[in-house]
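Supplementary Text 2. Reproducibility record for the structural model of the 57-residue chain.

All settings were left at their defaults, and a single model was retained for analysis rather than an ensemble. We include the record here because the model underlies the residue-level annotations in Supplementary Table 4.
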Amino acid sequence: MIVCVCNALKERDVREAARVAGKSCPKAAFAQLGCKPKCGQCLPFAKEVVENAHACT
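Retained model, structure tokens:
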């Protein structure tokens, strides 16, 4: 599933970036992927994805 249309980020990419970054902040996951939120519409869903990534580890 697409998390961020502006940056074409997939859910699995955001989840993995959050695990690698070791932080539960969507902006840290975006930074790990070399980008940042643009319009911000994705942040609520990205936050949920990141939190779930850390809950599963």
